Fold this sequence. Notes:
The complex is a heterodimer. By secondary structure, chain A is an all-alpha fold. Chain A has helices spanning about 1-30, 45-50, 50-85, 90-95, 105-115, 120-125, 140-165, 165-175, 180-205, 210-215, 225-235, 240-260. By secondary structure, chain B is an alpha/beta fold. Chain B folds into two domains: about 1-135 and about 265-315, Periplasmic binding protein-like II (D-Maltodextrin-Binding Protein, domain 2, 3-Layer(aba) Sandwich); about 140-260 and about 325-355, D-Maltodextrin-Binding Protein, domain 2, CATH 3.40.190.10. Chain B has 14 helices and ten strands. The interface of A and B includes residues 52, 218, 236 and 240 of A. Chain A: It holds the Pfam family BPD_transp_1. Chain A: Belongs to the binding-protein-dependent transport system permease family. CysTW subfamily.
Amino acid sequence: xxxxxxxxxxxxxxxxxxxxxxxxxxxxxxxxxxxxxxxxxxxxxxxxxxxxxxxxxxxxxxxxxxxxxxxxxxxxxxxxxxxxxxxxxxxxxxxxxxxxxxxxxxxxxxxxxxxxxxxxxxxxxxxxxxxxxxxxxxxxxxxxxxxxxxxxxxxxxxxxxxxxxxxxxxxxxxxxxxxxxxxxxxxxxxxxxxxxxxxxxxxxxxxxxxxxxxxxxxxxxxxxxxxxxxxxxxxxxxxxxxxxxxxxxxxxxxxxxxxxxxxxxxx
Amino acid sequence: xxxxxxxxxxxxxxxxxxxxxxxxxxxxxxxxxxxxxxxxxxxxxxxxxxxxxxxxxxxxxxxxxxxxxxxxxxxxxxxxxxxxxxxxxxxxxxxxxxxxxxxxxxxxxxxxxxxxxxxxxxxxxxxxxxxxxxxxxxxxxxxxxxxxxxxxxxxxxxxxxxxxxxxxxxxxxxxxxxxxxxxxxxxxxxxxxxxxxxxxxxxxxxxxxxxxxxxxxxxxxxxxxxxxxxxxxxxxxxxxxxxxxxxxxxxxxxxxxxxxxxxxxxxxxxxxxxxxxxxxxxxxxxxxxxxxxxxxxxxxxxxxxxxxxxxxxxxxxxxxxxxxxxxxxxxxxxxxxxxxxxxxxxxxxxxxxxxxx
Lengths: 267, 357
């Protein structure tokens, strides 16, 4: 009796999962086997393994990797310093605040800032470097992406560092290890989970970015996300779009698996 | 738990009250069944004053919504759940919607103002006899450029874009048919080419253009050209008119090899709720005076002969927007090439985009 009662509470949850998680994925897989006329085919998968799409996949990976790496590089020290400040919740709030603003608005703002007559170029002129093309370059694309993703990287790392017991650091220093050694052997391994989840939340969406590739990179950077958008909205070749989506899902599952928290022995 | 339940209840009650309020407001403003007409149009593509005037004249209320691509519009209408009474697709989209049975026939007896339209824009291949659509605006694809930034350089041909001096200066509008189209045009091929070799040749030629291309963008192209972020752009004529209105340095040309001629027509989707009102609206927009005012506001070329008589001489004699008969002969309308060919165009376009300088 009791068990059945509990199962009833599970129903809304199961329904949710079936309707909003499982069935969309099945639909995507189903569409990936359809050609333009709606016939069953494997040709979409063949197309995916042509140089165009493989190169695009590599591109997406490379840019997503760069975005994640730079985000991490900036986020870790920031999160670390944040935990040392007096009003850390306030500082954290200030860092998260920009993520409340719509992404498109921020992208448009950067169009103005990075433009030929924008703020960034005005500053370069002041320092005597002269005007440079900033907009529509790899630099601007990675800069803006990092800017957008950084709150998502800081949060988990901040939480991990904040939870770290300070006496462990004291102990390490008492036992004679240098500050660097303490960081490498104590602080970093103990906060690696935060780093992992931070990397996941940044890398996975970065892989399928599409609005920024047009607005900030002027389609000079083509990622899988761009191709999915084009296939669904312009070509209406849903099959090919779905095939790319299937690969994105597979890649993401792999990444989750590889960076997942498996039980390990003593570090 | 109790707090949570209370919070949820509060949200429900508030939402319910808001729905009642919206209903009440709609009724008090006259937005009730049978008395409204929903218009689905491109962004910034009508003089808003005209909507007010239509409401005053007919006592109907207009609900106005906008889209930014034919594909997005078609998807939305196809999926159902929408009640658009009038939509404004381009010619190839009309052909497709017609094939898929998404349009209602237009009753010509209810649109007496149809006589105002120039015969040149009636009975075109995409809709013989104008059974399903009525002309709204038309235009071309061409080159907008900024002589001030280019030391007075002028453009006459698509091939002028391949000039080495234009390194990193060109903006393209992000459309497969437009970009592949001007590649084909520059080789004196048809815009509706389906021959594989010729298409490949056009793609190779476009790849050679890559060093000159600064970016491939969407609607932002207007802002970027107006701000003189780049000196050359490949755009639709109406966008060019907008840009030239905001930045007087800009000029527009339809290249001599020919280009695309496109039409946006008004249609009545199958999902329409107020077919009577839709006809009234279409007839209203074809009125000479209304069309003239609208043309003045929007900046695209009007197919309305009577309206042209009311427009200032400088507008209608401007060959950049009302091309001469000889040039018009070299303009081509996009044909519906079928899904397979369109997909092939898009693949070529994607390959072109993948090439980096």
